[in-house]
Amino acid sequence: MDQKIKILAIESSCDETAASVVENGRTILSNEIYTQIALHTEYGGVVPEIASRKHIEKINQVIDSALSKAECTLDDIDAIAVTYGPGLVGALLVGVSAAKAIAFAKNKPLVGVHHIEGHISANYIENLDLEPPFVCLVVSGGHSHLVVVKDYGEYEILGRTRDDAAGEAFDKVARAIGLGYPGGPKIDKVSKEGNPDAIKFPRAKVDESEYDFSFSGLKSAVLNYINQCEMKGEKIVVEDVAASFQKAVVDVLVDHSIAAVNKYGLRKFAIAGGVASNSSLREAFEDRCKKEGIEFFHPSPVYCTDNAAMIGVAGYYEYIKGVRSGYDLNAVPQLKLGER
Ligand code: KG4
Ligand code: ZN
Questions:
Q1: Ligand 1 pocket check for 215: Cβ under 6 Å
Q2: Residue 1 pLDDT
């Protein structure tokens, strides 16, 4: 392609203020992320009002720095892509307002992007040969979805969580065993010192749907185990609890995903979202996909957790299809995948 299309992308759906410049949907010219994690750690989770206030403070600096690292100005940008849902309403509104202001002032097209579509699209960044169709497991702090990516921007949802998202389960269990927020990376780290077979936690199945997930039973099983130990006056081995919990999550995610890939006759499988950076999950999928002859794709950890590069990639594919948002674009906290 001779023509170079540059998208300025903005992401502010949760606790990362992020901006990126993406060229032709696959080349990341800059990827700026201001993470608020340290700010929320003392509360044990994201405080929505604090997140919104920090986004409004940081957004212009982050956008400025994304443009300068990409060595371009707003005049070089072809369109503005922004996450408009799902996410925290106050947080989303900051990014959406910034994107609308730039689009209006510079008379540039505006493209609203679905956050989960962004996570899935992160796989296109480092896997230049990856094209739909493929099956993708999206596991983040707010979502656990198993989807068939039929084409760019076209999804069939096969399964989703019935209760807690995978990342949410990691965060809650981490809090219960005293590791603090954010739980995923901490459980990932201490699990390396633990025995994943030390405690037999349940592998939850959802009766009517072979692709749905349920993690609240597993979370309760971990809490019960901790309570029982306390009642018996026994000290828990944090590393073993973490490793055994992590294995229970990984087993279910791998089994459901591989069943879906095989059922749909696709030989390409990708993972996305914050939990996709989990080392044990990645190893388990590497192994299993190799055995089953399935090509396995995953983004680097920096593109798994929230970032704007993934929004620029998804925004590019929407943009070239002709998708445009109006100046009435609003935040949609409960936006469903595949809806506009
Ligand atoms: O995708 P993300 O950055 O934000 C949402 O869209 O939700 O995902 C954040 C989630 C958190 O729950 C965090 O604990 C989890 O991803 N996470 C991990 C790891 N890194 C982040 N979970 C397991 N292992 C990790 N290494
Ligand atoms: Zn996310």
A1: no
A2: 53
Q: What is the pLDDT of residue 214?
A: 94
Range of the domain at 94: 6-120+304-321
**Does the CB atom of residue 306 touch ligand 1 within 6 A?**
yes
- Please write down the long-range contacts of 62-65, taking CB distance under 8 Å and 24 or more positions apart: 62/17, 62/18, 62/19, 62/32, 62/33, 62/34, 63/8, 63/10, 63/19, 63/32, 63/98, 63/102, 65/19, 65/30, 65/32
Per-residue pLDDT, 312: 98
Q: Which residues surround ligand 2, an ion (CB under 5 A)?
A: 140, 306
What pLDDT is attached to residue 2?
65
Closest atom, ligand 1, to C-alpha of 143: 7
Same-domain pairing of 106 and 225: no
Residue 140 lies in a domain: yes
Query: What is the number of the ligand 1 atom nearest to the C-alpha of 119?
Result: 1
* CA of residue 3 to ligand 2 center, whole Å: 30
Q: How far apart are CA 222 and CA 32, in angstroms?
A: 37
Q: Going by CA atoms, what residue is nearest to atom 8 of ligand 1?
A: 274
- Structural domain contains residue 152: yes
325: DSSP letter? B
Task: State whether 195 and 262 are in the same domain.
Answer: yes
CA of 255 to the centre of ligand 1 (A): 20
Q: Which ligand is nearest to the CA of 301?
A: 1
Top mutation candidate among 138, 170, 280 for ligand 1, by most atoms within 8 Å of CB = 170
Asked whether residue 279 falls in the same domain as residue 317, the answer is: no
CA nearest neighbour of 314 among 24, 132, 118: 118
Instruction: Verify whether ligand 1 is closer than 6 Å to residue 14 (CB atom).
Output: yes
149 and 290 both lie in a single domain: yes
Q: For the chain (length 340 residues), average pLDDT per consecutive 10?
A: 89 98 98 95 92 98 98 98 98 98 98 98 97 97 95 95 94 94 95 98 85 94 97 96 98 96 95 98 98 98 98 98 98 91
Q: 139 and 97: one domain?
A: no
Tokens of 83: 């996450």
